[in-house]
Amino acid sequence: MENKELLLEFIYLLKESIDFCFDINKFEDRIKLQKYVFIGKFFGLKHNYKYNMYIRGPYSSNLADDYYELGKNVNEPCSKDLNFNTENFSALVKNKEVEWLESATTMLSLYSHYKSNYKSLLGNTDFEKIIKDVSEIKHLIPENFIKQVCYDLKDQGLLN
């Protein structure tokens, strides 16, 4: 499935599963959509968007290009099967604020790119190290909040 078709279906899924109605004119909605698509990959969403680390965490300029191109037609279903774990994804992200999404995507990005840096000699994940690293990057977000995000991700099996 092409990224734009997938994006249309994913946005409709977000509307149905977590009551997120994407409004391209709202900055916060654009941030949230960036984060939802990023996290979606960890639940089986098969997209080809490339992300780079940016001020608010992982950001995909190609994704932004696609949702701007799609414009206001993004809340209509296109009936494609995403083969996606909607239930677990929705349980994790529903009602989460931007700070949680930024912390979670930053943590997932660091962990997936530098997994060996976060493993102890025994092969266990060093959660304190990843919390510290994310806290340094997201220094305006309290460390206790980032710690809770870490345990939310761990509980979903996204950090192991």
Question: Explain this structure to me?
Answer:
The chain has helices at residues 3-18, 27-40, 61-70, 86-93, 98-113, 127-137, 143-155; strands at residues 52-54, 57-59. By secondary structure, it is mainly alpha-helical. It is built from seven helices and two strands, in the order ααββααααα. The chain is globular and about 50 Å long. Helix content is 55%, strand content 4%. The two termini are 30 Å apart.
Question: Helix proportion of residues, in percent?
Answer: 55-70%
- The whole-angstrom Rg is 16 Å
Number of helices: 7
| Major sheet details | 2 strands, antiparallel
Any low-confidence stretches, pLDDT <50, length ≥5? none
Assembly type of the chains comes to single chain
Summarize the structure.
This protein is mostly helical.
List keywords for this structure.
two-stranded antiparallel sheet; 160 residues; mainly alpha
Topology, element by element:
Layout: H1 3-18, H2 27-40, E1 52-54, E2 57-59, H3 61-70, H4 86-93, H5 98-113, H6 127-137, H7 143-155
Antiparallel strand pairs: 1-2
Helix pairs in contact: 1-3, 1-4, 2-5, 5-6, 5-7, 6-7
